[in-house]
């Protein structure tokens, strides 16, 4: 069975032959003696044009097809010299496969992304979302390809977990207890020993900790899967369910980590530019002018590296009015991140060596005892796209950090053990997959790069 993509790709073989195609009516122009149908099956960005002559026995039926009617067409593929589309099919048979009602919600006109969010089950049929989700799919493949070519092990870390990987407490609880009427202890607290796992459990916020265990067995690994955060941030860059890609490398420090991240970043951009040409041209024309050129620039230059302390100095000296005042020790806000990557660097920039107080417990403390070997990659338009670090491999320091963060040491017993037995230097990072899709497409809202987004107050489809 041919797809529309096949027709364009195998054009030279198929031309002047009779072919059969099953797809949906994307557009229909009707004049008295002839009907032009733009036929699309979602496999490629371009529709194929069908010409239906009034001689066809069911011409009157064809004329009345509504948008998104499913049809089978049999006819001759011909070249159309000088026309907008390079090829078309001259129909010999048109068969109705599935009717579409006349009130089809996606009529031919531009709809706002807000409106399309009310129909997550249909919006993938529009040009924009067709292109976004093809890029999303290609990007995922590019990530696997990159790590596979470098001999990394792909490890499936668990979704349900007993430990908080970030120590930030932003987790969704998983329970089989009757939450209306839970079993209680003598002291009146919920008795989690009666829960499915005999303890409290959550959806994972990151596969990193389990990834570290596998890095310390297989050296270079990555995990890539869904992660969940109950952050109450109703922004265009936060989702409650998002995908994260996290490599972990052993016998490696922060600088090895930065080098890997930069290589990966450039590789996956090149892959998408190369393999999604039509889609990227569409984004360049309709979503973000000049995006292709900007991405080409990114892959041709070295990324800047700047310490947190330097970044804070630059922000303090800038004339920009920030909503959130800048001072050494603050967590950089999106406005600061974007200022640095957009106005100062005008490209991707790694910020390293953040104050230890604002970063996760597992990051390696630097010799100044004030900062940790952290790295965030900031990019224009998005802000933080990657977060990573060299990990604290020294048992005593890690133990103290867990205690100081008021985390339960029993939950991290296994994690600490990794430091007792061959706990060599290791490092890793997490790429926010949706933010990468936003960066590549120019889409401005994370809700528009996830097929069925889950965000605060929204889980309808
Ligand atoms: O900086 P984060 O929190 O780092 C980690 O989770 C580490 N365990 C990663 C590691 O070192 N293995 O998250 C990593 C990235 C962020 O830079 C951001 O791109 C994305 O994940 N991210 C989110 N994306 C969408 N919605 C959210 N709520 C996100 N939170 C983080
Ligand atoms: Mg982060």
UniProtKB/TrEMBL annotation:
It is an enzyme of class 6 (ligase). It is found in: Cytoplasm. Keywords: Aminoacyl-tRNA synthetase, ATP-binding, Cytoplasm, Ligase, Nucleotide-binding, Protein biosynthesis. The keyword Cytoplasm applies. Its EC number is 6.1.1.22. It catalyses: tRNA(Asn) + L-asparagine + ATP = L-asparaginyl-tRNA(Asn) + AMP + diphosphate + H(+). GO terms for cellular component: cytoplasm. Residues 133-451 form the Aminoacyl-transfer RNA synthetases class-II family profile domain. PROSITE patterns: AA_TRNA_LIGASE_II. One of its GO terms (molecular function) is catalytic activity, acting on a protein. InterPro entries: Aa-tRNA-synt_II, aa-tRNA-synth_II, aa-tRNA-synth_II/BPL/LPL, Asn-tRNA-ligase, Asp/Asn-tRNA-synth_IIb, NA-bd_OB-fold, NA-bd_OB_tRNA. One of its GO terms (biological process) is asparaginyl-tRNA aminoacylation. HAMAP family: Asn_tRNA_synth. Homodimer. Belongs to the class-II aminoacyl-tRNA synthetase family. This is Asparagine--tRNA ligase. It comes from Citroniella saccharovorans. The lineage of its organism: Bacteria, Bacillati, Bacillota, Tissierellia, Tissierellales.
